[in-house]
Amino acid sequence: MKITFLGTGTSQGVPIIGCTCEVCSSTNKKDNRLRTSVLVQANGKNIVIDSGPDFREQMLRTKINRLDGLLITHAHKDHIAGLDDIRAFNFIQKEAIDVYCTEQVEAQLRREFAYIFAEKKYPGIPELNIHNIYPDKNFEVAGINITPIEVLHLKLPVLGFKIGDFVYITDANYIATNQIDKIKGCKILVLNALRNEKHISHFTLSEAVEVVKEVNPEQAYFTHISHQLGLHEVVSQTLPANTQLAFDGLTLQTEWP
């Protein structure tokens, strides 16, 4: 199984428009972060988690020409705003694209993208097959078994996903014990770590490190990173041995059962 980080930045991306801080002004490509998303490739299938505002650029950058499933963690704009660009895959594959989300997320998609779900559809709009998923029930995407992990983003339920020995969690600041138990001892854990200062709805870097200690994966990667966290190379030198900052374009390989 191959994992590619399509984006590792927070809702505004890095650099932020109009900001001249040392991170936003950095010439290190690892400090340039598109909105958070990840590509999972297994059994010859392509699964993307979240389609934020940079979805089109991410697909072009990774040269993806087929999409077998889109998983949506929650309905905030930085995770769904690129949904319209699904239509490129409709044209290529000549079929509707399977989208997996909770009923609550589906309801939000129907409001945000009303034209996609209209009774009388304009020619050429995205074609989707919506599949509702539930926090306590495994599901399959293109024959690949996936375990949902429910976390809280302040008071908003968000789904993370366990695929084989890989776990992906973004936009969280609380994970209940029964959800931690689902992922303990995984090989690879990806977790959001927004910044150093306390935040109302995201783990700080130190809080994310504590979660890693509890889960005890072989390796952990931090994502959904703000310019406030600091320069990639500087922050990396402060991290525990089995943790590191993810960056756009980083690829990982792990066994697929």
Outline the structure in words:
It is a single chain. The chain is an alpha/beta fold. It is globular and about 55 Å long. The strands form two sheets. A seven-stranded mixed sheet has the order 6-5-4-3-2-1-14. It has a seven-stranded mixed sheet with strand order 7-8-9-10-11-12-13. The chain has one domain (2-248): Metallo-beta-lactamase, Chain A (4-Layer Sandwich). It contains seven helices and 14 strands.
Secondary-structure blueprint:
Layout: E1 2-7, E2 37-42, E3 45-49, H1 55-61, E4 69-71, H2 77-80, H3 87-93, E5 97-101, H4 103-112, E6 128-132, E7 139-141, E8 144-153, E9 156-163, E10 166-169, H5 177-183, E11 188-192, H6 205-215, E12 219-223, H7 232-236, E13 243-245, E14 251-253
Parallel strand pairs: 3-4, 4-5, 5-6, 10-11, 11-12, 12-13
Antiparallel strand pairs: 1-2, 1-14, 2-3, 7-8, 8-9, 9-10
Features:
257 residues; alpha/beta; Metallo-beta-lactamase, Chain A; seven-stranded mixed sheet; 7 helices
How do the strands of the widest beta sheet line up side by side? Answer: 6-5-4-3-2-1-14
| CATH first level | Alpha Beta
- Poorly predicted tracts of residues: none
- Strand fraction band? 25-35%
Structural class computed from helices and strand pairing? alpha/beta
- The H/E string reads EEEHEHHEHEEEEEHEHEHEE
Assign the CATH topology.
Metallo-beta-lactamase, Chain A
How many domains?
Answer: 1
- Separation of termini? 9 Å
Helix content: 10-25%
Level-2 CATH architecture? 4-Layer Sandwich
User: How confident is the prediction overall: mean pLDDT?
Assistant: 97
Mind summarizing the main beta sheet? 7 strands, mixed
Shape summary:
globular
Can you count the helices?
7
Total E-strand runs: 14
Radius of gyration: 17 Å
CATH homologous superfamily identity: Ribonuclease Z/Hydroxyacylglutathione hydrolase-like
